[in-house]
Amino acid sequence: MGVSLRVDKATKAGVGRGVVTTVLLLLLGRGADGALLDVEKDELKFGFIKLTDCAALVIAKEKGFFEEEGLFVTLEAQANWKILLDRVISGELDGAHMLAGQPIGATIGIGTKAHVVTPFSLDLNGNGITVSNEIWAKMKENDPALAQPKPPHPISAKALKPIVAEYNEDGDPLRMGMVFPVSTHNYELRYWLAAEGISPGYYTGGDTTGTTDADVLISVTPPPQMPATLEQGTIQGYCVGEPWNQQAVFRGIGVPVVTNYEIWKNNPEKVFGITKAWADANPNTTLAVVKSLIRAGKWLDASPENRVEAVKILARSEYVGADEEVIANSMTGTFEFEKGDKREMPDFNVFFRHYATYPFYSDAVWFLTQMRRWGQIGEAKTDEWYHDVAKKVYRPDIYAKAAALLVAEGALSPADVPVTDGFKAPDRGFIDGVVYDGREPNAYLAKFQVGLKDLPAAGVE
């Protein structure tokens, strides 16, 4: 199976000769007339977790983008992130909707050791931190500004700090949930707490729970179980993706106090992950998958009408399986904090804009810095080490090839693809005002008051 790509089509689409030449070089050995790009494997099974940020995979299937690229894809919901990763590594799944930190963590051996790569970023933003009604009431007592009908945002953890101290004095630390040790959620929750001097704990050689010296105990809870676990009182708050923050609002059991868009503006969230061995064995299939996902991301961000249609599809039981109204609350340009406090937030879920689909090296480096900050990476590393790992895992080279094919076909504009060396400009979009530059990870770590930090001498590996 394959997709047609002809030079005359590219020329009619107004694509420059440079792009056409690039595409022809990609197709050397398959005919200068733009012969079919054959896929090595056309029947594929991809895994996902029931979250709205699996949307690109779902839309690529439901809108026919996979089939138009010669692929017949089955999507299969997985019980949790560990099972999902293990099944990709074992080959039971060809690829999956993954936490951005999962390919990185697996490649460097955190928990599981396997070389996993990502040629595609699924989305930006999309998470929130929710606290129980009881904790929210106490936060409002500590900060009268929070008691307003629409309190000022972003809300920091400052009003939570005395509550944390009170719990510790009583000998029963505050407990919060996140979805997986190398998840964005874990690092965002820790970042939010640490920005106000609250220690979220450290991972050590003898402590894989990450609770050493913790002011707040953070543990793993699968995303769909977050609201029920909060309601039972097992945890007093959590960081999770949608629709599970909005579910707490609808059920009246908790209040989202901050989104990850407010913690780190336009942060990467999920990725499409495959093993390096699979990518190497199926290069054309990988390109076809990435082409399909780029098209799906573009469709999702193309219009409000498309988002409404996507909500209806995602609400189906085989996908996210939550009420349309709950999913729409965050997927259609708004986000509801305390019940009745619904705000415009057009960038809460981004699937294509702001180069959302491009796998930037600097995004991978940020996750590595957080793994080091909290002890999952147990020793000092040079800046070069961070950069080398990022380049082993994040594969913008594959993305660029897929994008060039779409540009030549007229399905993508050259302006939709960033001109970059893989690193973003220094980022000032964090809640604590700390500036991040992926080119200087150790200097970045040295800026924090809470967390491990080191400026290793040359030669440290």
Outline the secondary-structure elements:
Layout: E1 2-3, H1 7-12, H2 17-26, E2 37-38, E3 43-48, H3 55-62, H4 65-68, E4 72-77, H5 81-90, E5 95-99, H6 101-108, E6 116-121, E7 124-125, E8 127-132, H7 133-142, H8 161-169, E9 174-178, H9 184-194, E10 202-204, E11 207-212, E12 216-220, H10 226-232, E13 237-241, H11 244-251, E14 254-259, H12 260-263, E15 270-275, H13 276-281, H14 283-300, H15 304-314, H16 324-331, E16 334-336, E17 342-344, E18 349-350, H17 361-373, H18 383-393, H19 396-409, H20 441-445
Parallel strand pairs: 3-4, 3-5, 9-12, 9-13
Antiparallel strand pairs: 1-2, 5-15, 6-15, 7-18, 8-13, 8-14, 10-11, 16-17
Number of beta-strand segments: 18
The biggest beta sheet, please?
5 strands, mixed
Spatial gap, N to C terminus = 45 Å
Helix content: 25-40%
Strand content: 15-25%
